[in-house]
Amino acid sequence: MTALIDAARRGRAWARRRGSAIGSVVAVRAQEPVVVLTYDDGPDPAGTRQVLDALAEHDATATFFVLLTRVRKHPTVLAEIIAAGHEVALHGPDHRRPTEFGRTEALRRLLDSRAELEDRAGRTVRWYRPPYGAQTLGTWRATRQAGLTPVMWGGTTWDWRDVGQDERVAKAMATVVGPGSILLAHDGFAGADDGAPDGGPTHDLDRYELTDRVLDGLAERGLRGVSLGGALAAGARPDLAAWFSR
């Protein structure tokens, strides 16, 4: 905890010297009753399509943070995400922690992977979510130097945990505190081939049902799901906070 506090203090001091805000997007200050839906670790032929079907049923949009290891294997699924009107963002060239690399190498990886994803998607990529939310001041600076904005989360579906679906839905409802929350979910699970050191989760998950039930729960509270870009286009403003880990 002391290390995190010290890192945050260094970040604020650096920001004051630069005369600019430092931080990652952790929520948005929304003018509309929206929750930002985000999905990590895809594209995945089964999981992504389940999520896309559920989003279409609810007329919702989402931001998909994709891995290039998966994009190269499943380019048609990436195309389906885009054709359905969703936003594509970068989760990384693979699922290794960016904090394993020095700033120069972290920057090179981000520049190369952003350029490749933009070429494959045919559009500008604005957002980056580091795997595991792992970020230091150095990798944050590399992210911004690469022309990307780091995006974290507040709410979570706990979908990477091997728990019951009821518990996942309850967790999502408990951690979405209101309009402007960013909800973390996954349309796939990174594995050993993607550089996940533990091989990634292996439990079965009905992603259609989970997305459908979460969106039903949000609707009962008068909230709807949108992509990050969609929320900002509707007048929301990014809410920044220091987010540093080891």
From TrEMBL:
Domain NodB homology residue range list: 33-226
SUPFAM superfamilies: Glycoside hydrolase/deacetylase
InterPro entries the UniProt entry points to: Glyco_hydro/deAcase_b/a-brl, NODB_dom, Polysacc_deacetylase_ArnD
One Pfam family per UniProt: Polysacc_deac_1
UniProt-listed PANTHER family: 4-DEOXY-4-FORMAMIDO-L-ARABINOSE-PHOSPHOUNDECAPRENOL DEFORMYLASE ARND-RELATED (PTHR10587:SF137), GLYCOSYL TRANSFERASE-RELATED (PTHR10587)
UniProt-recorded name of the protein: Polysaccharide deacetylase family protein
Lineage of the organism: Bacteria, Bacillati, Actinomycetota, Actinomycetes, Micrococcales
